[in-house]
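re: ur question from earlier - yeah i can do the single chain one, its not a big deal. heres the input i used so u can compare w yours
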Amino acid sequence: MIVERVGRSLCGLAVLFLANQSSHAQAVTQGVMQPRLVAAQIDTNIDLIVEREIARASGRGLPTEPLRAKVREGRLKRAPDARIRVAVLALVSRLDTARAALGPSASAGELIAGADALSAGADAAAVRAVVAASTARGASVPLGALAQLVASGVPSTRAVSMILDLIRRRATATQVIAFGNAVERDAAGGLPASEAAQFRWGEFGSSSATGTSRGNDAAAAGPLVTNLGGAATPPPNRPPRRRP
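and the output i got, formated as tokens:
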């Protein structure tokens, strides 16, 4: 009988112990999950706000893929939700500015290139100047090259002047892309951006001067593709100035 009573007592203690452990575990779980639930709710609210802004942009004819890409970029970088929203709204503003410069018939590619140029530091007047000169063949490539030059450190006014000159000389899209890529590569390698742009642009100018006609695309701009493929080699009397 004593053994039986002791057994029942031990069973009772075990039940109480397990009940306490279960309560404690439930409390801990609730303590951990509650902040997560609150964070998820906040995240959902931010998502709804961003989605509303993207829907409004779409209603105005703006491309939405770069906006969603901006959200994905923020998520990957673990940026705060408020910062993601600010970034999305800033991109919407740049796309609106690009649309105002390009007109209602602009393609998504042109709008994105215009927004990139604005983000790099070019102003709306620069975008409008490039667009006005590019009506015959589209503005996506010239605007992309403008963005590259300005982002590399070339002053906006100088970059616009160079791009407009390439357009006037009927440089092909491939040649304009090669010019922008070469300047970007030279600047990344340590050559001052303005010097790199001047040298690359000078190559184009000197090659066009040897052509039979400025209307001849191949003669005027052909060497741009071959000469701009490698690293810049400034003239002997102007050695490159390396950044410290």
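The chain has a mean pLDDT of 76. not sure if urs matches, ping me
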